[in-house]
């Protein structure tokens, strides 16, 4: 049952079958009849009816891949930022039109029902969303894979903006149940903590026996992930924690009800919430417990599956590839060694070969301070056997370092798994690197910089391990579902096959200058902008004109991402318009959305600044119709799906050298937004693909940034030379936007003047000029439309199918859609 092309009739038999299935679920699974059902009941009934159809494919895909003895990929990630699954699964199953019609006949609209589903926000930002896109692409490419993570009771906090300030509230995403998941009460593993290690000699060999002090149970919950066209379905397996001894009855009977459940509370705390951190390590004991908990359960599970299918632990690397998403699952190196050596009696050297051949690691950040480290003392207390294993790995590793650079103490100190300088800490980045056969960066520039900076010495010691895999995004969610109108136009212009082969987007090139096509393309954008304008009105009561240029910056709030540069430009523009209200100004709406880590005070102050500027600008009649500023609260995947198709301009303005890749940049360009950006992360590759004339590049390059930082962070020189910047900073510092507290933003003004680590002041003039260039382009609507169409036409390479095909070939050595890894697959950039 595949989705009929637009205009094609719906199969009546299939339609009535779906209707009966939904009604049956409503009665038998929800326990209600149509008369008393809420919208939420209908949503659940429809989701369950869909799930039934997915399960058949799921079971047969799993059986087929095991029967064929295929190698499997296990993607270990503490974050999966999935968003909603309902229309995603419907679309991939080819059942969207049918369910739409069925629900319409039943008197409940699909578009209403889909809003009943809460976002699964089990991630902070790019890293978590990448994991979700990868899961979908692996399913699409027919790669048997499981994603392993934690089933957090609370996902990323809900953001409320109160009087301009961010406030955090718990994200109770499971409160109405979750129709997608299957609890597997029989799939339970014991995960141990603490205690001590005993060493005994058996037949001349040392044998370690860990006597843990504490045990937690990991229970599996599986969510099916449907690939495009529904041929293949994989599982996302998330672990929930509980105590093996949930209630101490003797304690309970003494009346100590809290104490009786204390162990359960302690165990459950592991999966209670997602650490709301971004680019800075959590550094808390609970975080390390989370990491070990999910790594141990996942490795036990995959080893058990492997043994059941293959019988041979020694053959693990031939049948299993484990990808570590950042350093968070680095403990997999030591846990796999423990399983092989301590539990399966494999000799150390053989175990090490298996481990390295099985594991690979993706790095997502160059910030040295964002690479996790843990105090040796904490390790000793929580994971004593793992610390021993780390020491032993380090002995051989440092011996190799000595061999390579004899007598070079600094080299040895830099590659060591233990940082001796900062009070002895275990370095998770080094551990993941040493234990992996491939280490990949997430954009060409980032991979190059990895070799030059954080992993310079390790790259020297283990040459050839570092490789690049530029990120990608799934077009099913970020084009087909988010932007159905554009998709319809693309089907018309490039043929149905564009849905299966994005390289067909190239066919748009010939229409890019065609005014009739441009009109259609503009109409689609306008339609999407009306929808966003409505949402902005509903959510924050700001009226915006869909005819204005929609200038969008949506991402985590972070100094290096430079929302501050954007709002500074808004202030300078505001001043310029006020000085000359009769000027030929391009009407603009500056749209921001994003969350700041709860503990990141400065980022939260930036949110307040944006909202304070919005308050002044939006209420000033002099600039009315020319400039509006809107901060949309509670940014999440579902909000992104509305904003992205409506964007004209995509702000990708990080300090050069600091954004590892970015993926929002890809989503926006694919939907026809023109990028204003620095030469950073994947922006560089986007420029290479869309053409330098179809993107606005500005600012310092990574090399310039390093040079300028060495000279000092004072920006007085550039401020003196830039009256617009100087006036904007003065306005912030003097309380022009905060009359109720004129000192509120002094710290920001001070940093802009004297501590310009992120080059906001240094890049301001170049950015301001690039923005005026954007204004000029917007004035010629045909030229704008052409550039926008060419962006869409040239983004095919950024499909996560391409990224995953590269991982499959160069890292995992698994076939893609039945094709051997080395066979040519799809167009490369
Ligand atoms: C330990 C706390 C913590 C949690 C997450 C530290 C750091 C992170 C991540 C590195 C944050 C993240 O999402 N990084 C982003 O990963 C994306 C996918 O590769 C890239 O596109 C972004 O550039 C990178 O910032």
Description:
With 829 residues, this protein is α/β, with parallel strands linked by helices. It folds into three domains: 1-68 and 84-118, no CATH class; 69-83 and 119-471, 3-Layer(aba) Sandwich (Rossmann fold); 477-713 and 755-794, Glycogen Phosphorylase B (Rossmann fold, 3-Layer(aba) Sandwich), CATH 3.40.50.2000. The protein is 48% helix and 16% strand. It has 34 helices and 24 strands. Helix 26 (664-670) links the parallel strand 22 (649-652) and strand 23 (674-677). It is globular and about 90 Å long. The two termini are 34 Å apart. Residues 124-127, 130, 277-279, 281-282, 326, 364-365, 370, 372, 442, 471, 659-663, 681 line the site of ligand 26W. It catalyses: [(1->4)-alpha-D-glucosyl](n) + phosphate = [(1->4)-alpha-D-glucosyl](n-1) + alpha-D-glucose 1-phosphate. This is Alpha-1,4 glucan phosphorylase. Belongs to the glycogen phosphorylase family. It holds the Pfam family Phosphorylase.
Percent range of helical residues: 40-55%
The gyration radius over C-alpha positions equals 27 Å
SS strand fraction: 15-25%
Q: List bound small molecules.
A: ligand 26W
CATH class of the largest domain: Alpha Beta
Number of helices: 34
Intertermini distance: 34 Å
CATH architecture of the largest domain: 3-Layer(aba) Sandwich
Largest sheet: 9 strands, mixed
- CATH fold node name of the largest domain: Rossmann fold
Which regions have little confidence, pLDDT < 50, spanning 5+ residues?
824-829
Q: Shape from CA axes?
A: globular
Kindly state the number of beta strands: 24
Helix-and-strand structural type: alpha/beta
How many domains?
Answer: 3
* CATH homologous superfamily caption of the largest domain: Glycogen Phosphorylase B
For the biggest β-sheet, the strand order reads 7-10-11-4-1-12-13-17-18
Query: What is the averaged pLDDT score?
Result: 96
């Amino acid at each position: 049952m595949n989705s009929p092309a637009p205009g094609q009739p719906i199969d009546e038999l299939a339609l009535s079958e779906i209707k009966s299935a939904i009604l049956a679920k409503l009665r038998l699974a929800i326990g209600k009849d149509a008369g008393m059902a809420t919208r939420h009941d209908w949503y659940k009934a429809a989701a369950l009816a869909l799930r039934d159809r997915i399960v058949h494919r799921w079971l047969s895909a799993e059986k087929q891949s095991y029967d064929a003895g295929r190698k499997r990929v296990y993607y270990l990630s503490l974050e999966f930022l999935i968003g909603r699954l309902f229309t995603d699964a419907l679309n991939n199953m080819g059942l969207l039109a049918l369910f739409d019609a069925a629900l319409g006949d039943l008197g409940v609209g699909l578009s209403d029902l889909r809003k009943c589903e809460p976002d699964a926000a089990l991630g902070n930002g790019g890293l978590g969303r990448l994991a979700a896109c990868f899961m979908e692409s692996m399913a699409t490419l027919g790669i048997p894979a499981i994603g392993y993570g934690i089933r957090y009771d609370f996902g990323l906090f809900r953001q409320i903006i109160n009087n301009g300030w961010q406030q955090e509230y718990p994200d109770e995403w499971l409160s109405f149940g979750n129709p997608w998941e299957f609890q597997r009460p029989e799939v339970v593993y014991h995960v141990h903590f603490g205690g001590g290690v005993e060493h005994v000699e058996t037949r001349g060999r040392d044998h370690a026996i860990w006597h843990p002090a504490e045990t937690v149970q990991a229970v599996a919950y599986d969510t099916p992930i449907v690939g495009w066209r529904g041929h293949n379905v994989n599982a996302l397996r998330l672990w929930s924690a509980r105590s093996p001894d949930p209630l101490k009855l003797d304690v309970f009977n003494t009346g100590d009800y809290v104490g009786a459940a204390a162990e359960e509370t302690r165990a459950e705390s592991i999966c209670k919430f997602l650490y709301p951190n971004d680019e800075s390590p959590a550094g808390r004991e609970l975080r390390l417990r989370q990491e070990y908990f999910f790594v141990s359960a996942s490795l036990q599970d995959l080893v058990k599956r492997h043994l059941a299918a293959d019988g041979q632990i020694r053959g693990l690397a031939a049948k299993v590839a484990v990808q570590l998403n950042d350093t968070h699952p680095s403990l997999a190196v030591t846990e796999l060694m423990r399983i092989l050596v301590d539990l399966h009696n494999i000799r150390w050297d053989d175990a090490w070969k298996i481990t390295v051949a099985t594991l690979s690691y993706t790095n997502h950040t160059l910030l040295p301070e964002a690479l996790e480290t843990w105090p040796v003392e904490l390790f000793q207390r929580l994971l004593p056997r793992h610390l021993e294993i780390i020491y032993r790995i380090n002995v051989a590793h440092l011996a190799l370092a000595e061999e390579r650079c004899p007598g070079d103490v600094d080299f040895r100190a830099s590659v060591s798994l233990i940082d001796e300088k900062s009070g002895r800490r275990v370095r998770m980045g080094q551990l993941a690197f040493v234990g992996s056969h491939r280490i990949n960066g997430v954009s060409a520039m980032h991979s190059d910089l990895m070799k030059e900076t954080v992993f310079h010495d390790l790259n020297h010691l283990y040459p050839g391990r570092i490789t690049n895999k530029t990120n990608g995004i799934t077009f099913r969610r970020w084009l087909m579902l988010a932007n159905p109108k554009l998709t319809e136009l693309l089907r018309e212009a490039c043929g149905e096959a564009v849905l299966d082969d994005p390289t067909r987007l190239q066919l748009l090139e010939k229409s890019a200058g065609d005014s009739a096509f441009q009109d259609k393309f503009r109409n689609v954008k306008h339609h999407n902008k009306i929808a966003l304008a409505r949402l902005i009105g509903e959510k924050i009561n700001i009226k915006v004109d869909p005819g204005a240029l929609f200038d969008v910056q949506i991402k985590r709030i972070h100094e290096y991402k430079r929302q501050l540069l954007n709002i500074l430009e808004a202030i300078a523009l505001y001043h310029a318009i006020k000085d000359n209200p009769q000027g030929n100004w391009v009407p603009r709406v500056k749209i921001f959305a994003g969350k700041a880590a709860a503990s990141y005070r400065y980022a939260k102050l930036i949110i307040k600044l944006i909202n304070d500027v919005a308050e002044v600008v939006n209420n000033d009649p002099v600039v009315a119709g020319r400039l509006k500023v809107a901060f949309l609260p509670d940014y999440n995947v579902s909000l992104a799906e509305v904003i992205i198709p409506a964007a004209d301009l995509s702000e990708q303005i990080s300090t050069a050298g600091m954004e590892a890749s970015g993926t929002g940049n890809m989503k926006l360009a694919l939907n026809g937004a023109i990028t204003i950006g620095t030469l950073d992360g994947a922006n560089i590759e986007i420029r290479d693909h869309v053409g330098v004339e179809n993107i606005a590049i500005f600012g310092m390059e990574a090399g310039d940034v390093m040079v300028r930082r060495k000279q000092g962070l004072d920006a007085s020189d550039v401020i003196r030379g830039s009256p617009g910047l100087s006036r904007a900073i003065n306005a912030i510092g003097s309380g022009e936007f905060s009359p109720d507290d004129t000192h509120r933003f002094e710290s920001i003004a001070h940093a802009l003047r004297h501590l310009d680590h992120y080059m906001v002041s240094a890049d301001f003039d170049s950015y301001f000029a690039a923005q005026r260039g954007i204004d000029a382009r917007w004035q010629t609507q045909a030229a704008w439309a052409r550039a926008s169409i060419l962006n869409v036409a040239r983004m095919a390479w950024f499909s996560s199918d391409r990224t995953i095909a590269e991982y499959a070939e160069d890292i995992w050595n698994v076939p893609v859609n039945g094709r051997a890894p080395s066979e040519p697959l799809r167009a490369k950039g």
